[in-house]
Amino acid sequence: MSNSRKRPKIKILKTGSEWIWDIIGYSFYFGSLIFLVYNWNELPNEVPAHYNALGEIDRWGSKMELFILPIIGAFIALLMQLFERFPELHNYPERLNEENAKEFYLISRKIVNQSKNICLIIFALILIESVSIALGLGNGFGGWFLPIVLLSTFIPIVLGIIKQTKIR
């Protein structure tokens, strides 16, 4: 079964948790875009464009650069949405078979769903903070931001892999 062409194609309805993750992720994403557009005319010409590992601004740039994160977010959302649609293309252990494929697919799809939405939330928070700093309302992220981003990104992956190890 290691060849993805031989894997069964199974229609699995989106779960409630996947819908909730999508609602949260896309709400953050579109909310940050609305926040950007609403504040656009008040923004100075130079805004925070990059942060170092401590969450400090290490580069300022044109306010047009604020559209980079939503563009990357949209690209990630579209690409990961495709991965969600075709879980039979994901990477699985050799023990995948007709009997356990649905369970493997669902766990893998949930990992992709959560990762996609966490990325949308992270990009939205960075955009909101960048706009806030440019408007004189924010202080920057501080050193806590990178560890939280890393943990929030890796926890769903690790938990999903642990769940998959229990499938027989």
Order of helices and strands: HEEHHH
Strand segment tally: 2
Shape from CA axes? Answer: elongated
Placed side by side, the strands forming the largest sheet appear as: 1-2
Strand residues, percent: 5-15%
Q: What about the largest sheet? A: 2 strands, antiparallel
- Structural class by SSE content: mainly alpha
**Mean pLDDT score, rounded?**
93
Radius of gyration: 19 Å
C-alpha termini separation: 14 Å
Poorly predicted runs: none
The number of helices is 4
Helical residue percent band = 55-70%
Folded structure, characterized:
The chain is mostly helical. Helix content is 58%, strand content 7%. The chain is built from four helices and two strands. The chain has helices at 16-39, 68-85, 101-134, 145-165; strands spanning 46-51, 57-62. A two-stranded antiparallel ribbon has the order 1-2. A hairpin with a 5-residue loop joins strand 1 and strand 2 (57-62). Helix 3 packs antiparallel against helix 4 (145-165).
SSE layout:
Elements: H1 16-39, E1 46-51, E2 57-62, H2 68-85, H3 101-134, H4 145-165
Antiparallel strand pairs: 1-2
Helix pairs in contact: 1-3, 2-3, 3-4
